[in-house]
Amino acid sequence: TPSxxxxxxxxxxxxxxxxxxxxxxxAGDLVKIRDKVIKWDMEMTEARRTLDWEKQLALxxxxxxxxxxxxxxxxxxxxxxxxxxxxxxxxxxxLPQQKKYEKENKNLQQVE
Length: 112
Hints:
Blueprint: H1 11-32, H2 34-49, H3 53-59, H4 63-72, H5 91-111
Helix pairs in contact: 1-2, 2-3
């Protein structure tokens, strides 16, 4: 916990310690028993790719804290917009646009 050997931890510090433990344990599990734990990572990856915020929040290690942070940015579940960190430079927004652009230009070149 954050108060390690300094004081008796309070509830928030115990929670922070447990979250850190879960993250570290998951990282170790990915190395040791990858096939058994990768499903969660793949589900989170797909939720990120499709900008499915509700699923991302549900899959997060601390859904309540994730929802608070998400709402703090002015976003709400159901609005498929990129995070405030990436904004318009979000790969999940830019990649489909780039693919569409390339497909349209390829079709134009074939017509000419």
